[in-house]
C-alpha cells in the first residue's frame, strides 16, 4: 500500500513543476508585452495614413514604420529563444494575437509600397521564423492568414480616405487586389472558427470598395485605364526590392 508520505513527496514535486511553469510563462509574457507595445506604436503611426492618404504621405509613413522593425525583431528573437523546440503549441496562445498584428503591419507596409501580397515564406524570412513547428519557433498559418485579412479591412478604409485626398485611381487598384484575395480565400475549406469569421468580413470589405469604385465611375471621377494599370513586372520587381531593403 502506498503511504501518505509517498503521496506527499509525489505532489510536492508536482508543485515544483507548476512553480517553474508559472515562472516561464511570466517570463514569456514580459517579452510578448514588449512586442505588443512596439506594435501599438507602429500601428498608431500607420493610422496617420488616413489623415492624408496621398502618395507622398503614405511613403513617408511606411518608411517611419520600417525603421522600427529591427526593435521588434530583437524582442521576437528573445521570445523564440525561450521556447524549446517541440513546445510551440504549449505556449503559443500567449503571443498568437501579437503575431497576427505583426503580420498585419508587415504585409500592410509591403502592400502600400508594392501593391502586392507578401507571401508567408517572405514574412517568415523577414521575421527570422521557421515555416514548420518541428523546426522551432515558426509562423503559424492561421496567424499569417488572420494578419492578411486585417490588411483587407484597413484597405477598405483607405479607399474612402484616398478619394478624399483626390486619389481616384487607388480604390480601383485596391478593389482588384481584394477581389483576387477573396477568390484565393474561397479555395480554402475554412471551419466555423475565428478565421472563418474574419474571412466573412472580407466580403463586406470588398463590397464597400466596389461601391466606392462604382460611385467614382458614375460621377466620372474614375481614373482612365492608362493611369489605372498596374506596374509592369520589371517595375514591380524593382519596387519589391526597394521595399524589402527598407524592411531590413
Automatic annotation (TrEMBL):
The keyword Cell wall biogenesis/degradation does not apply. Residues 18-45 form a coiled coil. Mg(2+) binds at residue 154. Residues 222-248 are annotated as: Disordered. InterPro entries: Translin, Translin_C, Translin_fam, Translin_N, Translin_sf. One of its GO terms (cellular component) is nucleus. Residues 223-236 have a biased composition (Polar residues). GO terms for biological process: RNA metabolic process. The keyword Isomerase does not apply. One of its GO terms (molecular function) is hydrolase activity. Belongs to the translin family. This is Translin. It comes from Clytia hemisphaerica. The lineage of its organism: Eukaryota, Metazoa, Cnidaria, Hydrozoa, Hydroidolina.
Amino acid at each position: 500500500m502506498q503511504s501518505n508520505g509517498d503521496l506527499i513527496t509525489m505532489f510536492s514535486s508536482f508543485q515544483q513543476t507548476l512553480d517553474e511553469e508559472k515562472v516561464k510563462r511570466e517570463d514569456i509574457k514580459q517579452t510578448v508585452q514588449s512586442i505588443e507595445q512596439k506594435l501599438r506604436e507602429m500601428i498608431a503611426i500607420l493610422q496617420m495614413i488616413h489623415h492624408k492618404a496621398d502618395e507622398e504621405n503614405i511613403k513617408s509613413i511606411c518608411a517611419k514604420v520600417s525603421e522600427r522593425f529591427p526593435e521588434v525583431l530583437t524582442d521576437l528573437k528573445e521570445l523564440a529563444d525561450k521556447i524549446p523546440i517541440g513546445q510551440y503549441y504549449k505556449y503559443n496562445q500567449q503571443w498568437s494575437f501579437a503575431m497576427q498584428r505583426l503580420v498585419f503591419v508587415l504585409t500592410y507596409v509591403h502592400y502600400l509600397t508594392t501593391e502586392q501580397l507578401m507571401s508567408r515564406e517572405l514574412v517568415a524570412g523577414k521575421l527570422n521564423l521557421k515555416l514548420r513547428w518541428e523546426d522551432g519557433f515558426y509562423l503559424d498559418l492561421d496567424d499569417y492568414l488572420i494578419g492578411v485579412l486585417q490588411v483587407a479591412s484597413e484597405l477598405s478604409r483607405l479607399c474612402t480616405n484616398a478619394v478624399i485626398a483626390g486619389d481616384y485611381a487607388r480604390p480601383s487598384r485596391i478593389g482588384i487586389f481584394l477581389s483576387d484575395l477573396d477568390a484565393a480565400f474561397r479555395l480554402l475549406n475554412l471551419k466555423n472558427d475565428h478565421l472563418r469569421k474574419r474571412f466573412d468580413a472580407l466580403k463586406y470589405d470588398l463590397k464597400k470598395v466596389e461601391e466606392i469604385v462604382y460611385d467614382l465611375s458614375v460621377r466620372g471621377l474614375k481614373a482612365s485605364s492608362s493611369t489605372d494599370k498596374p506596374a509592369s513586372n520589371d517595375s514591380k520587381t524593382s519596387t519589391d526590392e526597394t521595399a524589402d531593403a527598407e524592411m531590413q
